[in-house]
Amino acid sequence: MVSKPRLYSGMQPSADSLQIGNYIGALMQWRDLQEAYDAFFSVVDLHALTQPNDPAELREKTRRTAAQYIAAGIEPSKSTLYVQSHVRAHAELAWILSTMTGFGEAGRMTQFKDKSSRYGTDATNVGLFTYPILMAADILLYQTDIVPVGDDQKQHVELTRDLAERFNSRFGKTFQVPTPVIQKETARIYDLQNPTSKMSKSAESDAGVLWLLDEPSKSAKKIMRAVTDSEGVVRFDREQKPGVSNMLVIFAALTGRQIPAIEDEFAGRGYGDFKKALAEVVVEEFGPVRERALELLADPAELDRVLAANAARADEVADATLSDVYAKVGLLRRV
Ligand code: TYM
């Protein structure tokens, strides 16, 4: 049997629910790609520690994130779906890689620069600075061929490639050098109230965020209240009509239709009709995902069992890479 190429991706358990940007920008692609690839999907709880967290809430968010992966169609019998902290090799490889990362190189990461300027140096922890190195460890442990992510993660995958190449040239071929698969621009979803900012789990206001686990009626209301413009024409124009364009992108992504066909359907009709139709599409898509996720969450012991079995599978691959790395860098083997 020819083995399938490897795929790796992950999400932070940084909220009780994923938002529609995570769904369209990541989960939908993951679901499609899991057939052709030997896929590893993690809930990156160690990364989430870079933000202040209540311990009990973090545990709950971790389970909820995993449940939403499964509810959205990631199959734990086909793909390896696990919690990052269950596989100890992640933190260990991150340490080794951090000794090979330049201070300036890490400081150039734009997500770090954004976050540290938002919170100020005193409130910025060192984990936020080394965050991309842990992400590189995630990817490199699994000899990953492709990393499907939104464009906000592109620079981190580039750093991962640089670290893999640096390690390989210093110690001999050890890591597969991964290729980022960046979702096209239309896969980036913006906030419904602030349609020039990316929709985010950590948005200050919840009014423009569509949560996968929200009551369907709540999501419908948010769509009806979404910011538009005064032109009254349903047409795609990111510059002039960011609100309507964002909703067209969501509509097209969830229905698999092309944007011009949707524009035609709503020609001569107002925003009210368009929003009502979009609300129906969203409710129809999210309703079953939400129900399935809540069902899974009603039996946390079974969910934990699935995650443990998958972590054991991840451990095997990760341990093999880490042992090779330890030997190559000259750590004395414990006999
Ligand atoms: P995170 O948790 O911020 O986001 C998870 C995934 O969702 C995508 N995404 C979006 N796509 C479209 N529109 C949006 N509004 C939107 N918001 C988020 C992100 O691009 C991402 O693909 N550092 C990563 C997690 C991570 C990781 C990894 C990813 C840790 N280790 C290894 C890949 C491989 C993060 O914070 O993603």
Automatic annotation (TrEMBL):
Which molecular function terms from Gene Ontology are attached? tryptophan-tRNA ligase activity
Its quaternary organisation is: Homodimer.
Keywords recorded for this protein, A-Z: Aminoacyl-tRNA synthetase, ATP-binding, Cytoplasm, Ligase, Nucleotide-binding, Protein biosynthesis
Give the gene symbol: trpS
Keyword Nucleotide-binding in record: yes
Name by which UniProt lists this protein: Tryptophan--tRNA ligase
Please give the InterPro entries that the UniProt record associates with this protein: aa-tRNA-synth_Ic (IPR002305), Rossmann-like_a/b/a_fold (IPR014729), Trp-tRNA-ligase (IPR002306), Trp-tRNA-ligase_bac-type (IPR024109), Trp-tRNA_synthetase (IPR050203)
Q: Which reaction does it catalyse?
A: tRNA(Trp) + L-tryptophan + ATP = L-tryptophyl-tRNA(Trp) + AMP + diphosphate + H(+)
Q: Does the keyword Nucleus apply?
A: no
Record function comment: Catalyzes the attachment of tryptophan to tRNA(Trp).
PANTHER family linked to this entry: TRYPTOPHAN--TRNA LIGASE, MITOCHONDRIAL
**In which family does this protein belong, per the annotation?**
Belongs to the class-I aminoacyl-tRNA synthetase family.
Q: Which Gene3D superfamilies match?
A: HUPs, Tyrosyl-Transfer RNA Synthetase
Q: Which domain of life is it from?
A: Bacteria
Where does this protein hold L-tryptophan?
138
EC number, as in UniProt:
6.1.1.2
Q: Where in the cell is it found?
A: Cytoplasm
The UniProt annotation places ATP binding at 12-14, 21-22, 150-152, 189, 198-202
Q: Please report, in chain numbering, the residue ranges of the motif 'KMSKS' region.
A: 198-202
